Amino acid sequence: MTRYILLRDPTGNWRRSPVPLAGGIAPQDPDAPAAPVVETADLSPQEVRDTIDDPTLLTLQPAMCTRLIAPEPMDELRSADAVPGWGLRAIGADWTPSSGAGVRVALLDTGIDAHHPVFSGIDVTAQDFAGTGIADANGHGTHVAATVLGRDLGGTRVGVARGVTDLLVAKALADNGRGRSEDFFQAMLWALRSKADIIGFALAFDVPGQIDALTEEGYPTALATLAAVHAYRGNLRICEVLLQMIAGDQAPLLLGAVGNDCLRTITPEFETGPSAPAAAAGVLAIGACGPDEAGLSPAPFSNVGAALLAPGAGIISAGLGGGLRTLNGTSMALAHAVGIAALWVEQMRKEDTPVTAQTLAAKLIGTATRAPLGPRASSVECGHGLVQAPKGALE
């Protein structure tokens, strides 16, 4: 028996092509609201063949492992040398007139230490999808959330959008940083139904983990590899269909960490592209940059293929137990970008500009800058450039 994810539309408006599992999913009435449902089931090969005849079924794909896009050590950057708030200054968060007031942010991560003082005055609505409780024993989710909207601590500024008071936290990964793709999809649907303006995540579909899981079940290595790649493609497909279904005036913008898999410190050849689901059509993939002699440059671990860059090296934010800690990674960059997106939502509403996933993405891309980036930084690594906060009178 294999565990499968089933994406359905109970209304019957969205339908797939007559060829099973071949794509071609589209609505009969493009203006009708979508009501996607994600289910899981353990199915035998024969049950799979029987299930695909269900007209409400849009796609059926193997469930797979997910993993945290874990922070990266950087030998050349010691925590003691990290400069508090450098990333906030680089993106203009320290002089913008916007604060993110009235914006609802959702983070799909490892939970949150909601009692940390940086979250004072923030209304946290939490839901556990990983089955280990909403408390964050990992620390990653707490660090990311604090960078997005945390209050100052001991004279140190932590958060980008300190006016945000409405935070949705979906625990999509267990405390060990591992999870399942169905947990991610359920967390995403929960954030959608909770009317988030922005959704941020820093996890990846875990092909190596899927291969290990299948070989432990007795799969030959070659077959396990092929099956894991098939599951990867299928889960990416589910993500893209979900985003297609919920696209519209009320759809939030999704931002995902591009991944920390490159090893440029060994050789420039050791690069790879964006991890999924950040690679999905409809998601803005965020890469990391850090300071160097020429200004700013892409971090050596940051995967290529990002749409935008944000500060992700030597980022000081909340640690478990009430203090601060320094982390490096595209997760930290994602947190800065989510905060900037919140600032822009507030600014666009003040200007009576319609806020949709498309208009917000266009604003982030259109206001990004390449000016601080070194001359060797290419669009392959940097996308449209470094995210920037709305400008004010101090421009």
TrEMBL record:
Molecular functions per Gene Ontology: serine-type endopeptidase activity
Keywords: Hydrolase, Protease, Serine protease
Keyword Protein biosynthesis: no
EC number in record: 3.4.21.-
Domain of life, per lineage: Bacteria
InterPro entries (alphabetical): Peptidase_S8/S53_dom, Peptidase_S8/S53_dom_sf, Peptidase_S8_Asp-AS, Peptidase_S8_subtilisin-like, Peptidase_S8_subtilisin-rel
PROSITE patterns, alphabetized: SUBTILASE, SUBTILASE_ASP
Pfam families assigned: Peptidase_S8
Single Gene Ontology BP annotation: proteolysis
Active site as annotated: D109 (charge relay system), H140 (charge relay system), S331 (charge relay system)
Enzyme kind, highest EC tier: hydrolase
Domain Peptidase S8/S53: 100-385
SUPFAM superfamilies with a match to the protein in the record: Subtilisin-like
Family (UniProt): Belongs to the peptidase S8 family.
PANTHER family xref list: CEREVISIN-RELATED (PTHR43806:SF11), PEPTIDASE S8 (PTHR43806)
Protein name: Intracellular serine protease
Species name: Antarctobacter heliothermus
